[in-house]
Amino acid sequence: MGYRFNDLTAACQDDWRAYIEHDFVLQLGQGLLADDAFRHYLKQDYLFLIHFARAYALAAYKSPTLADLRQAHEGLKAILDVELELHVGYCREWGIAEEQLTDLPEARATLAYTRYVLDTGNRGDLLDLHVALAPCVVGYGEIADWLNAQPSTVRGEGNPYDAWIAMYESDDFQAAMRAELEWLDARLADVTPARFAELCTVFRDATRLEIDFWQMGLDRTD
Ligand SMILES: Cc1ncc(CO)c(N)n1
């Protein structure tokens, strides 16, 4: 007993590394990612973020205490006011108007991941839901750090994707990530080994769906 978030990533190291170090991420860091792959990803990510905001609203509904409710509220605000706000502006810079985003057909990888998270939250408890959300919040923060540690990563004007990396290394996003980590570390501290094994399954499934999301971008699949 006495688990922490790091025990979840340690339990599915191969999937976690395949997500963080995916070719989509590597090519984005090098500035070599095909721009239509990036546009496809950006558009689907708009739909993804809307369902993610709904998942935080579900977390609010499932919160038994004021502290849990505040944590869910912070997550919802981070998505609506920080990430989606930046995302819509960023899409515009890439020639994708907001009207185009609202009419978008949802790709299967987007459907699978977002509905998996919502279903996990519906049938499980608040901890199941936060564990299903963790690869997203914690993963993208870690991806920004990993990119910055790669010698092949190009920062600044030489990389058309520089602003994307900047979004996930920003203080706002990193603070949301730390708050999620703290919340998870506090809750995981008391779970039994059997419960931890269940949570590992949720975490691994969500991580594999993140891998599929990158692949959907690379392959432009719908
Ligand atoms: C698919 C996906 N996962 C995580 C994040 C980070 O919020 C995002 N924007 N999109």
TrEMBL record:
Pfam families: TENA_THI-4. This is Aminopyrimidine aminohydrolase. Keywords: Hydrolase, Thiamine biosynthesis. Its EC number is 3.5.99.2. Pathway: Cofactor biosynthesis; thiamine diphosphate biosynthesis. It comes from Halomonas daqiaonensis. The lineage of its organism: Bacteria, Pseudomonadati, Pseudomonadota, Gammaproteobacteria, Oceanospirillales. One of its GO terms (biological process) is thiamine biosynthetic process. Belongs to the TenA family.
